[in-house]
Amino acid sequence: MGTRKNKINAASLLLLVLFAGLAVLMLFPLYALMLASLKPAAELFRYGLNVRWDWALMSLDNYKTIFAGSGAAGHYFTWYKNSLVITAMFTVLSLLFSSMVGYGLGVYRFRGQNLIFTFVLVVMMIPMEIIILPLYELTIKLKLINTVWGVILPFVVAPLPIFFFRQFAQGLPKDFMDAGRIDGCTESGIFFRIMVPLMAPAFGAIAILQAMNSWNNFLWPLIVLRTTEQFTLPIGLASFVSPLGNHYEELISGAVLAIVPILILFLFFQRYFISGLTVGGVKG
Amino acid sequence: MNSRTWAPYWFVLPFILSFLIFFAYPLFRAGMMSFQQVLPGDVQFVGLEHYSKLWNADFQAALWNSTRYTFWTLLLLVPVPMMLAVFLNSSRMMARNLFRSALFIPALTSVVVAGVVFRLIFGELDGALMNSILNVFGIPRQQWLYSSSLAMVALVVLAGWRWMGINMLYFLSALQSIPKDLYEAADIDGAGVMRKFTSITVPMLKPITIYVITITLYGGYSMFTESYMLWAGKPSPQNIGLTMVGYIYQQGFQYFNLGFGAAIGITLLVITLLISMLQLTVLGMFRKED
């Protein structure tokens, strides 16, 4: 018995070492980025990205450049604000619509239901990048180019959250619906007053997922947003390296600051996130 | 009007509208555009002209790069996250939650930020991180972003870093819904660790595995931002970083050749549909479950 136990301990110790190594490897690029943000950009050009701690060189100058907001960094906090606004609107609307659709598909039986669900799966299987050109044309026709709505509308009703809410809604107790009906509650009343609170874990998980997607979205905003004042943060950051010239001071400190909100969101809600995904059960 | 009859239609209305306006119509329009020369205020039918010009060196480079990238990401981003999730789900594993977070944190960063970091890591200077690691082993410095195979290494490493945590999380969530009594029954029958893994874990993970393969295929063929950031928005040397979506973007938004861009899009649609069908057939998605 004793040897068996020792063997298990040795194995889990080895695992622990392996995972610690992997965790260091995964976090290392972010550590390197943070370190680089404390050094002058000239250092990057002379030596490339390295991980030397050189106290004499390190300062908060790059961050001061960003906060001073002169030159290339002039619009940084405008982009930050744009990203916050778009992420908040996108997440709220996405939660509203996908919970409605997922609930409708999950708890009712109605004509055309299977067809609509098939369409949800089809949208999930086809990369949206295929239709960006006609979508761009449509956005111009609808006069949504260079607007917040142009960024949000085409993708706010997304298939994955719908699928997830449907799975979740299928597991909700139907008795509550009947009880609500007997008390004279309307169907939408049943949804908003009874079912939405029951779906709270699903809302938590999908909120984080959609906020992440929106905050980090690149290709579509790059196409829709034409003027510098309208850029979101990723588009603005990308504009710091361009054929017209590079601004590494702004780029590196700006990139570090861009991670902050989503990291805070994750650290606060991570328990909720993993358990929410589990309860909903993305079962394919 | 019976509200209970009509209620489901109200609930699914946002999807129907969004599907018709922002999916079905643009898809139909993409098909139409691919037979047209689209200039502002002047649309001409050109038949199969775009498709006949499609098989050129740029297209071949884009298709080759996207396919290679998809292949390597599938190889890296399905089995490895599955194994990681199995370990991180085991109650014997120490500091599980800490490792889950550590491995997931890269997934929180935008591909733009990831692209910036990896562009610097794979810099061509002696002191740049990758090259200084090579130096330790006595290997001369490499110009990572100037050769096709080295650039692919950089892209795949970036993808591995950025997407590992997400796929791991999908596997973790599926693992937690496997009933515990299956393992208890196996314990009673005297099954070993490996036997339990191959006879219970892997089969029970099949649906999520199919899902992860599907999104990895999808992500592989729709990759754009990684490549755009590694070469800082400039064309990569000899198109070593050109992808299918990069080619659509270049034709549509840099050369304003919307019709040709749409033809690339339709071709990409056909490719991804064929591969998805093949994948689902091979993995037996269409077989009747007993």
Description:
The complex is a heterodimer of chains A (284) and B (290). Helices cover 74% and strands 1% of the residues of chain A. Chain A has helices spanning 2-37, 41-47, 61-68, 76-107, 113-125, 132-141, 148-156, 159-170, 175-182, 187-198, 200-216, 219-224, 233-240, 248-280; strands at 241-242, 245-246. In chain A, a hairpin with a 2-residue loop joins strand 1 and strand 2 (245-246). In chain A, helix 4 crosses helix 8, helix 4 crosses helix 13 (233-240) and helix 9 (175-182) packs antiparallel against helix 10 (187-198). The two termini of chain A are 42 Å apart. The mean pLDDT of chain A is 87. The mean pLDDT of chain B is 90. Chain B has 14 helices and 2 strands; from the N terminus they run αββααααααααααααα. In chain B, 43% of the residues are buried. Chains A and B meet through helix 1, helix 2, helix 4, helix 5 and helix 6 of A and helix 1, helix 4, helix 5, helix 6 and helix 7 of B.
Question: What is the compact description of this entry?
Answer:
Chain A is mostly helical.
Task: Describe the secondary structure blueprint for this structure.
The complex is a heterodimer of chains A (284) and B (290).
Chain A: H1 2-37, H2 41-47, H3 61-68, H4 76-107, H5 113-125, H6 132-141, H7 148-156, H8 159-170, H9 175-182, H10 187-198, H11 200-216, H12 219-224, H13 233-240, E1 241-242, E2 245-246, H14 248-280
Chain B: H1 3-33, E1 36-39, E2 42-45, H2 49-53, H3 57-77, H4 79-89, H5 96-108, H6 111-121, H7 129-136, H8 148-175, H9 180-188, H10 193-204, H11 206-221, H12 225-230, H13 244-254, H14 258-282
Helix pairs in contact in B: 3-8, 3-11, 3-13, 4-8, 5-8, 11-14, 13-14
